[in-house]
Amino acid sequence: MTRFLWQAVYQQNPIAPEGLEFNYNVLQTYETKPLFEQAQSRYASLDPARRGKNYVSMPICYKIEDKHYLVDFLYRKKAMKEMYDVIVDKIIEHRINILVLENNTDTSLKEVLEERLRFKNYLHCTIIEKYSTQNKEQRIKDHQSDVRNYIVFPCKGMFSLNSDMGLAMEEITAYSFNYPNKFDDGIDALVIYAMQFIDSGVEFPEVGTFKRGYL
């Protein structure tokens, strides 16, 4: 039974059979997770939850040559205030060099994260704040090729559906341009990432691994 039929019959949640531009069949995937030491740089994007029905969405990628390997994904339906420390811990865990966040509502988010990073003595992450008025579906359409051509995803089944990554990948691969989507937070966060680190034309300095603590 196809995933579409299974979702439609047993889950009462049919997946659009057409317009699946991020289906596993068209994504680049890896079977072995890249090592931290292989990364030339480590980047992340953050799409904050604007209301209780949205996911806090934070994809984390290791840049190796001209590819961006999606190695972790914070994807939880919680209020932002509950996620501050979780976000900071992810930044430190992966030694993220640059975080770009879309912030059209909570103007204090950047300052809150920077303060908590300083408190934990991690001073190696530059946080870039972006504001956008562009229609979400349109920007996903505009940058879909960047996602497919430059981001390398974990192969199907590598992560449990109960994990943040597994749930995010489930929503991303089910996203359709032809039918309404229940959630688009995961793919939108990846597009924010692509706009900053792939399509911006800006070359960020490569930063090596940190071997002696955070300083």
What this model shows, in words?
By secondary structure, the protein is of the alpha/beta class. It has a single domain, classed as Nucleotidyltransferase, domain 5, CATH 3.30.420. It has 6 helices and 7 strands. Helix 2 crosses helix 3 (about 110-120). It holds the Pfam family Terminase-T7_RNaseH-like. This is Putative phage uncharacterized protein domain protein.
In brief, what are we looking at here?
This is Putative phage uncharacterized protein domain protein. The protein has 215 residues and is α/β, with parallel strands linked by helices.
Which value, in Å, is the CA radius of gyration?
17 Å
How many domains? Answer: 1
Shape: globular
Q: What's the CATH class, please?
A: Alpha Beta
Number of helices: 6
Identify low-pLDDT runs: 202-215
Architecture in CATH?
2-Layer Sandwich
Strand order of the largest sheet: 1-7-4-3-2-5-6
Give the fraction of residues assigned to helices.
Answer: 25-40%
What name does CATH use for the topology? Nucleotidyltransferase, domain 5
The run of helices and strands is HEEEEHEHEHEHH
Strand content: 15-25%
The count of DSSP E runs of length 2 or more, i.e. the number of strands, is 7
Distance between the termini: 53 Å
Task: Report the sheet with the most strands, covering strand number, pairing sense and barrel closure.
Answer: 7 strands, mixed
Secondary structure category: alpha/beta
Mean pLDDT: 85
